[in-house]
Automatic annotation (TrEMBL):
Spans traversing the lipid bilayer: 128-148, 168-188, 237-262, 274-301, 321-340, 383-400, 406-428, 554-578
Comp. bias (Polar residues): 469-479
Species of the source: Nitzschia inconspicua
Positions with biased composition (Low complexity): 445-456
GO cellular component terms listed in the entry, alphabetical order: membrane
Region named Disordered: 1-34, 445-479
Family: Belongs to the amino acid/polyamine transporter 2 family.
Sorted UniProt keywords: Amino-acid transport, Membrane, Transmembrane, Transmembrane helix, Transport
Ranges where the Amino acid transporter transmembrane domain occurs: 50-437
The protein, known as: Transmembrane amino acid transporter
Compartmental location: Membrane
Membrane topology: Multi-pass membrane protein
Pfam families the UniProt entry points to: Aa_trans
Gene Ontology molecular function: L-amino acid transmembrane transporter activity
Length: 588
């Protein structure tokens, strides 16, 4: 959480001349009551554009590994797990944005990022947890996308007779040239909404890729030779490699690191419109994954490889067309991860100021002037950070051909932290006080059903010299006294001490940090009406919405934390097993 919440960027007035790099006198704007110290997007997209961006961030390189995951986990168990993960992802996406934008505690504070949502209840630890997980996930994905481009394009252009056997010019130089021409310009864009068109193309390519696998996979002959679909289902309810598939499928839909960027780019953000975006995006993504996964597995059964395209002949037009669609998807998906990585670096290095504006105050008139800083010739801060990200991902992609051991494990760690553990911690932390009240009420209702003891406790004894005063047991102001004492049988099996500790930590952090913010910027009623953030929220319609915490979501948040820890352990162990047995796929 940033303690100084001054506006990052001061926009020049429309009636004043403005030249790039020059100074523009502008009147001082009203104070922005905003916790998140980030530069707001200038362009926004409709529901369709937001859906395209979200689907593109979900359906990346991982979709071609779904058939292999179903083979390992079992067709029935894997299908059920994929459907559940889709629902969990939809729930966590809505939970995160609703917490930040529509919860009664935070809707007036301008919380616009995942890390700020965790920093309010948990301080610096919450910020580091989210930013580290986001960067790990995004960086690993970007390197993987470049590797896929390097392995795929030479085969498509006929430069390699054997995949992976080409020279430096045929592989590395081709990757550098094409990525510089396509990936870098797209990654340089300022606002996420600018990628809506390319995301639509990428989603269309994913659809054609799924259609290719469904049409050209030899499903009929494979199923017939195995004794029919009924026999396959009977023998593949759940397989011995379930946890290998479990580790892959649980992070197949990971996109929470893009949640706030996509939501921030949505025009007229409301809870219902955001729910529509997540529902449409997750439904389409689940359908694509299920169709490709089931048809790919049924087409090759036990011979299904980690990259299902490797099961098709190398020299056929259809297979190379599918590889071309995969490469196109990688070109248009890389920039989305670059946006996430750039956001992390801008937050850590520049306090959220992406454009690098310098604001000066005239000592005589008090008039503000603003100018863009250009520390490297014609490149501003946004371009510089984007190029640094590209170069740092390009180097490992040039030097090695298989980053499987590193990328798979870091993907499992970062993905599970962002997809499940982070949202669960956020909900318990932000609503910590309400959660403690709910637990206290449950204990009180249970204690009322038991006969009360008439024995006088030590705290009921009068103080010496005062017959009317009782001994007061010292308590934590955010930890109800009712939680001290004997507990029911379910207290320990449900790990309730852990959840109470998290909620207590979150409640204390929320009280301290929001109080400090109010003391610096004034309470909500004191904010000047018509301020920047207030006006934008009135326009979006979100100012009137408030979503109260509920028992069901408390249970969901606890489940997500437990599920995330189990999925992370399963993902790490399964990836180690995959590496040891040399079955990690290299897309070609």
């Amino acid at each position: 959480m940033t303690t100084t919440m001054e506006p990052v960027e001061i926009e020049p007035q429309p009636n004043l001349p403005h030249h790039g790099g020059g100074t523009v006198p502008v009147p001082a704007p009203p104070p922005r009551r905003q916790v998140s110290n980030i530069t707001l997007p200038k362009k926004k997209s409709p529901v369709a554009g937001a859906c395209s961006n979200l689907v593109n961030s979900i359906v990346g390189a991982g979709i071609i590994g779904i058939p292999f995951a179903l083979k390992e986990s079992g067709l029935v168990a894997g299908t059920i797990l994929l459907i559940l993960v889709s629902y969990f992802t939809d729930k966590t996406l809505r939970m995160l944005v609703e917490l930040a934008s529509f919860s009664p505690r935070l809707k007036d504070y301008g919380v616009l990022t995942f890390e700020d949502l965790l920093s309010l209840p948990f301080g610096r630890a919450g910020t580091v947890f989210v930013l580290t997980s986001m960067f790990i996930t995004a960086y690993g994905a970007m390197v993987a996308y470049l590797l896929i481009i390097k392995d795929t394009l030479p085969v498509i252009f006929g430069l390699e007779e054997t995949p992976g056997a080409g020279s430096f010019i045929e592989r590395e130089l081709l990757m550098v040239g094409t990525s510089l021409a396509v990936v870098v310009p797209l990654s340089m864009q300022r606002d996420f909404s600018s990628l809506a068109f390319t995301s639509s193309i990428s989603v269309t390519a994913d659809v054609f890729l799924v259609v290719f696998v469904a049409v050209f996979a030899p499903v009929a002959s494979s199923v017939a030779s195995a004794g029919g679909l009924g026999r396959i289902l009977q023998e593949n309810w759940i397989n011995g490699g379930f946890f290998i598939g479990f580790g892959v499928l649980t992070i197949a839909m990971t996109c929470q690191h893009s949640a706030f960027i996509v939501a921030g780019s949505l025009r007229n953000l409301t809870a219902s419109r955001w729910a529509r975006v997540t529902c449409i995006s997750l439904t389409l993504s689940a359908i694509l994954c299920l169709v490709l996964g089931i048809s790919g597995y049924l087409g090759f059964l036990d011979q299904t490889q980690g990259d299902v395209l490797n099961n098709f002949a190398v020299d056929t037009f259809q297979a190379n067309a599918a590889r071309g669609l995969l490469a196109l998807t990688m070109f248009f998906t890389y920039p989305m991860e670059a946006f996430v990585a750039r956001h992390v670096l801008i937050q850590l290095l520049f306090g959220g100021d992406m454009d690098g504006y310098i604001t000066l105050t005239d000592p005589t008139t008090g008039e503000l002037t603003t100018t863009k800083s250009k520390r490297c010739g014609c490149l501003n801060r946004r371009y510089q950070v984007t190029l640094i990200i590209y170069i740092t991902t390009l180097i490992p992609a040039l030097l090695v051909d298989d980053l499987g051991p590193v990328l798979s494990i870091t993907g499992a760690i970062g993905g599970c932290c962002l997809a499940y553990i982070g949202p669960g911690l956020a909900y318990l932390g932000v609503h910590g006080h309400d959660f403690l009240e709910w637990v206290t009420g449950s204990l009180q209702s249970q204690s009322r059903s038991k006969p009360s003891s008439t024995k006088t406790s030590e705290s009921d004894l009068p103080l010496e010299g005062d017959a009317t005063a009782n001994i007061q047991t010292p308590t934590n102001p955010t930890y109800p006294s009712e939680l001290v004492g004997p507990k029911p049988w379910w207290w320990w099996p449900t790990l309730m001490p852990l959840w109470v500790a998290i909620a207590t930590k979150g409640a204390t952090g929320m009280n301290d940090r929001l109080t400090a913010f109010d003391s610096e910027h004034g309470p909500v009623s004191a904010v000047q009406e018509g301020g920047n953030d207030e006006a934008s929220r009135v326009e979006d319609g979100s100012i009137h919405e408030a979503i109260e915490p509920c028992k069901r979501d408390y249970i969901f948040s606890i489940f997500f934390i437990v599920f995330g820890v189990v999925a992370m352990v399963a993902g790490i162990l399964s990836n180690v097993y995959v590496q040891v047995n040399n079955i990690f796929y290299t897309p070609t």
